[in-house]
Design brief:
about 850 residues, alpha+beta, 10-stranded mixed beta sheet, 8-stranded mixed beta sheet, 20 helices, 40 strands
Length: about 850
């Protein structure tokens, strides 16, 4: 076997040497009548201007160019430092599968697969697409349950799939050993492509629609003026532009750092191995399904009568990219010792391969993001600087769908579906450090196939951002979760309690009794939750400029008395949420803005871009200036009275009010009468130098009231049972206030214009076509059945109508509560109709959990308000 491999390696080295000598610049398009396979050497200079400049000529960059051209954007210039498709695309395995844990990725892959199947007919360029189907294997019951969850959301999105037995797997792929299998997910419409040929087809179609492409042209610098892209510098001159798109693959990070104002693109390349075999004695049919064996860490696809097989090992090898990068990818040094465990897994899954000769082992760079999701969207720091990178070894599957979404964002200012799970603004700037990324990528690569459960915690890059109370809370039994690189308490294990090994599961979790006690304390006594991670801004002006700015940004009226708190949305032009926040008016021109942790970067960018150009309004990030303690429960007012030495009653401190108070020896503490849960209580925003002192004082005076620590799991249970939607889960940039029951927080009756007003008025006139509802599971055992977690299909009168957005067990209602959106479609033509209160309340609902069973539901009274 090794002899055949070595001979192939020698021949490949000769070809690479020839490639390196071919360095003349090629231009495609510009009226030459030539496609990317027919380029000729040119000495003409680059154009001086283009509306859009794309950096990166792989399958991702050419997809963006293709889709922009489809939208009518002709003045597009694509630059590639090497040759087209000479990067990761050149060595990509070419598997296109929809079987993914994150629904938006499945939808993107679905679009890609359909596009590739038609691209040859559209362009005349062979793409190598073959619909082989895919088999995702399960070596455990938990893996099978995970696959059933995926099947559930695929089926309601009209993607054919089925759960198979081991015997059925053999019928589809006779080479697969099934003795250890519990079943498999079969997606018959999945397939394989030639990524290089897809890239060529994209380029051919884009050029035919006016796009120009230059290879052997490196972008060295992006020029920014007043926070906006104005030009790019290349090794062949400067090009002015309005938009810049970074599709530079493993070099995207360095290119982002070279911008006048650095753009953080958190990705890191890693070596990725796969082997290619010679044809078997009885050649493998090209139409046999791709095999994905996540428990074995391998994938296998047919390849010219043999197989191509790679995987995601436990001990990945990051690649250093500092300094000058190679222009084009080469097959990196092969490492059979490193690939050995994957080869062993392959032979165990397909024993017939023991007699098949290996042609070669490929080692190529792949770029990975910190959370296993690609990076898409507009930079929060530089306007009109767009990014599509970090494909996590899924470039073939996602390039078509991702290119389409980014082109929509550039052309229309928004996407047709919510892409927050992929948005570049989901990352903290701290997550862009090279050390963090190098360590995280070694954790991420194994998790691509290891991942089974929802809510798995990353272990690298922890304790990066902490509250001043971290050590104290940790000593008191806090168990931690991480959000936006900030450590937050999940729950507290006190003396006499145990959470076992904190094992993640699809079923009743080990912390159930612990969180129950914290919730009951919030309901019956008082609890304190450290919520310091929440985003906090201050907006100031000497006159009414700050007020005028907020009136334009916010859908609710912000001209309220000093000390009043307004829970409002900041909407986009479509009337949907860009930010969901609580704003306290501290004085005539001073406002305190609080929003969820993961809105930190997004919220700052949105506010910054709407600041008056004359500098009359100042925006300050004060997240680090205040520790936030959420004091929840009926006895919270008693604790606050004892802490401030001032008798306080609910009548004196009504709901949604902000007061600055002294507590003990400390002063300047902002107290807001809301808890983000619907329960009574207060949030204390404490200057960080007083944080530990106030916490100790509060726990001391609260002892007689039964005060205890609580975490975010208790908060989640409380807010869901109170029908309190959160941004990023129940609210997003495609959700309007009318759809989530917040019409009363829109200033329709005021003669004040705001962003999104026109769209909301139109929606009000046309009718609301989806609504957020609350459902309670009535035929579901929390002890024996899988728990819902979000994105479960909702059925009304046996018809699919929507998905859940967030779910949790309610200790008050003694059952699972789910929030989710439902739609109303005409039974005859599928047209969306208005969702009326009668439609919501008069249906019979079921929820599908893990694809195998439906649980009857009843609506909670909150949804009927």
């Amino acid at each position: 076997m090794l002899k055949g491999f070595a001979l192939t390696c020698v021949r490949a080295t000769g070809r690479r040497a020839a490639v390196r000598r071919a360095v003349a610049v090629r231009c495609y398009g510009q009226g030459s009548g030539q496609g990317p396979n027919e380029g000729h050497d040119v000495s003409t200079s680059l154009p001086a201007h283009a509306r859009v400049v794309i950096c990166g000529g792989g399958i991702v960059g050419t997809s963006v160019a293709y889709h922009l051209a489809k939208l009518g954007w002709k003045d597009v210039l694509l630059l590639e430092q090497g040759r087209l498709h000479g990067g990761t695309t050149l060595l990509c395995a070419g598997i296109v599968t929809r079987a993914r844990h994150i629904p938006i990725l499945s939808q993107m892959a679905d679009y890609s697969c359909k596009l590739y199947s038609n691209l040859q007919k559209e362009t005349g360029v062979e793409t190598g697409f073959h619909q082989t189907g895919s088999l995702s294997l399960a070596q455990s019951e938990d893996r099978l349950l995970s696959l059933k969850w995926i099947a559930s959301h695929l089926q309601v999105n009209d993607i054919p799939c089925s759960i198979l037995s081991s015997a059925q797997v053999v019928e589809l792929h006779p080479w697969v050993e099934t003795a250890d299998l519990h079943g498999a997910l079969y997606v018959p419409v999945d397939g394989v492509v030639s990524p290089v040929d897809v890239c060529r087809a994209f380029a051919h179609a884009a050029i035919a629609n006016g796009v120009r492409m230059y290879d052997r042209t490196a972008v060295s610098h992006v020029i920014v003026e007043k926070g906006m892209v104005t030009a790019v510098e290349t090794d062949r001159g400067e090009i002015t532009c309005e938009y810049f798109v970074n599709c530079a693959g493993q070099w995207a990070y360095e290119l982002g750092q070279s911008c006048d104002e650095p753009v953080s693109i958190p990705l890191h390349p890693c070596e990725h191995f796969y082997l290619i075999s010679h044809p078997a004695e009885l050649p493998l049919a090209s139409d046999l399904p791709v095999v994905l064996d996540p428990d074995g860490r391998i994938y296998v696809r047919p390849w010219k009568g043999g197989i191509l097989s790679g995987g995601f090992e436990k001990n990945p090898k990051p690649i250093c990219t500092e300094g000058k990068n190679q222009v084009e990818f080469q097959n990196l040094q092969h490492d059979w010792d490193h690939y050995g465990p994957l080869l062993q897994s392959l032979l165990e899954r397909m024993p017939v391969l023991s007699d098949v000769q290996i042609r070669r082992l490929v080692n190529c760079p792949e770029s990975f993001s910190p959370d296993m999701r690609c990076i898409l969207g507009e930079s929060p720091s530089v306007q009109n600087y767009f990014v599509l990178a970090g494909m996590n070894s899924s470039g073939s599957s996602l390039a078509g769908g991702a290119g389409r979404l980014l082109a929509e964002w550039i052309a229309f200012g928004s996407t047709s579906v919510d892409v927050w799970p992929l948005d570049i603004r989901r990352f903290s700037a701290l997550q862009g450090s090279r050390t963090f990324l190098r360590h995280r990528v070694m954790e991420v690569v194994p998790l691509l196939y290891e991942r089974l459960y929802h809510g798995v915690e990353f272990q690298t890059g922890r304790r990066l951002r902490t509250s001043p109370l971290y050590d104290r809370l940790d000593s008191q039994g806090a168990r931690w979760t991480e959000k936006h690189a900030f450590e937050r308490p999940k729950y507290f294990v006190t003396e006499g309690q145990s959470d076992g090994e904190q094992n993640v599961t699809f079923f009743k979790p080990c912390w159930f009794d612990i969180v129950r006690d914290e919730v009951l304390a919030c309901k019956e006594a008082v609890c304190a939750i450290d919520m310091s991670s929440f985003t906090k801004f201050e907006l100031r002006s000497t006159g009414r400029q700050a007020l005028d700015m907020l009136q334009w940004l916010c859908c609710d009226d912000m001209d309220v008395p000093t000390g009043t708190v307004v829970h409002t949305g900041m909407l986009n032009a479509n009337g949907a949420y860009e930010n969901d926040c609580s704003i306290a008016r501290l004085s005539k021109g001073n406002f305190f803005i609080v929003s969820s942790t993961d809105q930190h970067i997004r919220g700052w960018a949105w506010l910054s871009r709407h600041l008056p150009a004359d500098g009359s309004v100042q925006l300050e990030d004060v997240t680090w200036k205040y520790t936030a303690l959420n004091v929840i429960g009926p006895l919270a007012v008693s604790v606050l009275s004892d802490l401030s030495y001032i008798p306080i009653s609910q009548n004196q401190f009504r709901y949604m009010v902000c007061k600055e108070m002294s507590m003990g020896y400390a002063n300047g503490i902002r107290v807001i009468s809301m808890t983000h849960t619907g329960e009574p209580g207060f949030v204390l925003y404490i200057p960080i130098e007083y944080a530990l002192y106030i916490y100790n004082e509060m726990m001391g005076v609260g002892k007689k009231h039964g005060i205890k620590d609580a975490g975010y799991f208790a908060l989640r249970s409380l807010r869901i049972e109170r029908f309190f939607p959160f941004w990023g889960q129940d609210l997003n940039s495609c959700t309007t206030p009318l759809e989530c029951g917040r019409e009363n927080r829109v200033k329709f009756n005021e003669d004040i214009d705001f962003i999104g007003r026109k769209a909301l008025l139109q929606q009000k006139q046309d009718g609301v076509r989806r609504r957020l509802i609350m459902l309670i599971l009535t035929e579901h055992s929390c002890d024996e059945d899988p728990w819902p977690h979000g994105y479960e299909p909702i059925f009304r009168n046996n018809q699919f109508v929507g998905f859940t957005t967030s779910c949790d067990y309610s200790f008050t209602l003694k059952g699972h509560v789910c929030l989710g959106y439902v739609q109303h479609r005409d039974a005859n033509n599928g047209q969306l109709l208005s969702v009326t209160p009668d439609y919501v309340t008069q249906g019979d609902y079921e929820l599908e959990i893990a694809g195998t069973s439906s649980r009857k539901l009843v609506e909670n009274e909150h949804q009927k308000r």
